[in-house]
Design goal:
- By secondary structure, the protein is mainly beta.
- The chain has a single domain, classed as M1 Pyruvate Kinase, Domain 3, CATH 2.40.33.20.
- It is built from 3 helices and 12 strands, in the order E-E-E-E-E-H-E-E-E-H-H-E-E-E-E.
- The two termini are 14 Å apart.
- The N terminus is likely disordered.
Length: 167
Amino acid sequence: MAVRDDECVPDLVQLLVSPVQRYAGRPTDGPAPAPPGELVDEAHIRAGLGLVGDRYFGKPAHRLASVTVMAEESLVLGADLTQTRRNVLLRGVDIDALVGCDLTLDCGDGPVVLRVHRAANPCAWMDVTIGPGAMAALRGKGGVRCEPLTDGVLRVGPVRVEISPTA
């Protein structure tokens, strides 16, 4: 599935590249402070490794889930990307329906291909960082975990999207 020229082009709304894990320990203890500069206008992706500078970059345990993508339409109760800890926030794409697909994003610097392996299920932290009931509200709408198949650059702004079944 590709976005036709006569359709509204989706937007890449936000990018989060954070060198630290903010949600460690018990949710009742609260998150660690956000490092400066974790919301970026541009992110570099490396095939099989993830987002350069991110906490999961090059970690073998996260190879198939090093990039997380979420639909802006799924955000609840005034949440923002930093609260969900997803790397890529897109508007105009039904992200949660893409498990088992390849998602190609092109912000003008060439295509970045992400293989969508599984859902990124919300956790109890959502009730702490967003508000009571957020975890339940995000169930089935928490985004997806992806493996980058190509190197490339993503930028905030209009993005060309192609969706294809995995080979």
